[in-house]
Design brief:
The complex is a heterodimer of chains A (113) and B (114).
Chain A (H helix, E strand, L loop, with lengths): L4 E3 L2 E4 L5 E6 L6 E7 L6 E7 L2 E4 L8 E4 L6 E5 L8 E8 L7 E2 L3 E5 L1
Chain B lengths: L3 E2 L5 E4 L4 E7 L6 E7 L6 E7 L2 E5 L2 E6 L4 E6 L8 E8 L10 E2 L3 E6 L1
Classes of the chains: A mainly beta (113), B mainly beta (114).
Chain lengths: 113, 114
């Protein structure tokens, strides 16, 4: 399977807890993107990595959200002090280069109770 | 008003019908237009992309862009039950010196019944 994978597929947590969501991009893809998709809405951009560095983090809603990609491959999206409004599907995508076709993973469905 | 507007539907059609899906946008700098298909509990997958105005055809799918009206369309001919999904339009202004990051519409839910 050469697609983008995301784990876990579902995550249920309580308000105030910390969560980590993982993305494994397609091998060799240098660009990695995180989006959030709320029910009935299109994906909203969160952050974009080129290699190990965050090239654009303008979509992160506040400082509770943080993402890393330490070795330029796997990325982790971290959410502190979760709120009920954080409930959504978190999508990861990768592309072979800047501006290339983005291939999406299946998403992690986060539910904050 | 959102930058990209898309009717959420659902749009229900019989098998074999021609389907028309549409988006309007407000940012005249958008020049690269895409259509994604998203099945339930899956990530979006790119169907077609077009640059600037004009038409592009790929099998049963045709994408149209009218920049003067800020209006884009996706037509599906001979629709099949397997076409039942949410269709998302997306666009970028990267060719205008802007961002690679696409702005998505909210998606239109399409149901093709046998």
């Amino acid at each position: 399977g050469a697609g983008v994978s995301q784990t876990p597929s579902n995550k249920v947590t309580e308000k105030g807890k910390y969560v980590e969501l993982r993305c494994d991009p397609i091998s060799g893809h240098t660009a990695l993107y995180w989006y959030r998709q709320s029910l009935g809405q299109g994906p909203e951009f969160l952050i974009y990595f080129q290699g190990t560095g965050a090239a654009d983090d303008s979509g992160l809603p506040n400082d509770r959200f943080f993402a890393v990609r330490p070795e330029g491959s796997v990325s982790t999206l971290k959410i502190q002090r979760t709120e009920r409004g954080d409930s959504a599907v978190y999508l990861c995508a990768s592309s072979v280069r800047d501006g290339g076709e983005q291939f999406f993973g299946p998403g992690t469905r986060l539910t904050v109770l | 008003q959102k930058e990209v507007e898309q009717d959420p539907g659902p749009l229900s059609v019989p098998e074999g019908a021609i389907v028309s899906l549409n988006c309007t946008y407000s940012n005249s700098a958008f020049q690269y237009f895409m259509w994604y298909r998203q099945y339930s509990r899956k990530g979006p997958e790119l169907l077609m992309y077009t640059y600037s105005s004009g038409n592009k055809e790929d099998g049963r799918f045709t994408a149209q862009v009218d920049k003067s009206s800020k209006y884009i369309s996706l037509f599906i001919r001979d629709s099949q039950p397997s076409d039942s999904a949410t269709y998302l339009c997306a666009m970028t202004d990267v060719q205008s010196g802007g961002s690679y990051i696409p702005t998505f519409g909210r998606g239109t839910s399409l149901i093709v019944h046998p």
